[in-house]
Amino acid sequence: MCGALTPEELTRLAAHTRKSHVDAGNELAGEATPVDSYANVMKGVVKLTKGLDDGRQQVVGLQFAPDLLGRLFAREHPTSAEAATDVELCVVPRPALEQLIATTPAMEHRLMQQALRELDDARDWMVTLGRKTATEKIATFLVLIADHSQPGHASGAARSFELPLSRSDIADFLGLTIETVSRQITRLRGLGVIHLSGTRQVDVPDMDRLRAMAG
Amino acid sequence: MCGALTPEELTRLAAHTRKSHVDAGNELAGEATPVDSYANVMKGVVKLTKGLDDGRQQVVGLQFAPDLLGRLFAREHPTSAEAATDVELCVVPRPALEQLIATTPAMEHRLMQQALRELDDARDWMVTLGRKTATEKIATFLVLIADHSQPGHASGAARSFELPLSRSDIADFLGLTIETVSRQITRLRGLGVIHLSGTRQVDVPDMDRLRAMAG
DNA sequence: CGTTTATTTGACGCGGTTCAATCAGTGTGG
DNA sequence: CCACACTGATTGAACCGCGTCAAATAAACG
What we know:
The structure is a homodimer. The first copy, chain A, is α+β, with helices and mostly antiparallel strands.
């Protein structure tokens, strides 16, 4: 339980951790709020968002299992964190984790790796936000979700998954409006690149074809 | 020399480091190129870029002194790195730095801090790319450069600095075209928010006024 | 079912791109 | 020292992708 750690690290943490369930839509941490605990995502998707004064919002990252939640070594959260789907967390009080890190270089190394991966992801997404068209943005997003739904799939194979985000969240992730998101999804459906069952269930008959549309 | 490290760390590195000067416009590392050395930026500005197949480009980060250049713990560079201005580097062979990191937890901790700061910056920039208007993007960029030119200045004070990027680079950083960048800079000049001497020298009579335009 | 909320669809306008021309700055050779 | 070319920046005009506003469906929920 509370996966993604080595057995030894686990033992040292176990005494301090606490499982927690959060329903979709609930906020886990507010922007510019004190960091008093960290959490491992066990199940579900958490969205990290930043807001502008006038209400504009941008989703700046999605956290899947087994990502660690919470900005290390900072007084305040730089983003807010909200459960995009129902979420299972493994919560650790701040002092417990920071002490473990301070005394276990391997632990810090592991977290460093995650931070660097998130940095790579963030920069990839900057390309999507800055340089891709609406259709490419949607395709890029669908590929991202598909790749996280059942890792280790064949390249061109078909794929089926459920969207963890509402149209509104997708819009805030891609820097678009809800209407444009809806229109582009409809467009991809019209081209036969994807099939929809209901509003969130997506079938991709040919992932390579989708990838080709992602720029 | 080769600043930003503690004396002890410095001593261990000194034997392996080599100073290097790179003229503006030269590439330091290609995208998807093997990482065989790291470098500390001593002076000047390095831009990190990612490209799409069809030539579209996005600047995904700027590195100022004393940032470390090079993706740790990865085989390949996720971005290309190019000298935006003339640059002074302090180059370290890959094995030397990685061994120092492996044996000096404090060193990894310091680099972790940089990685986390860069992640914060990247996410801030995602808001700029996804949700701000052209004018706000330009204002945000000018504030960023101003803040890096002479750190620790009074809030509303005037400020004068030289742009380290060409209009084309600015466009690729902000997800705009050169023409829009030019027009918005002209607009800010017309509003009296900035004054230009030549094409790169910028005077900001009131930083708070500029900040107010950054969204 | 009726009500509420999420999504889709339609019509229209605008911000930013595109394409094209002009202007400014910087070397370069006659 | 001045034409000339060359590169980078500005300016102009026309276009279009996406946003905005409004309405119609569809889905979720009591």
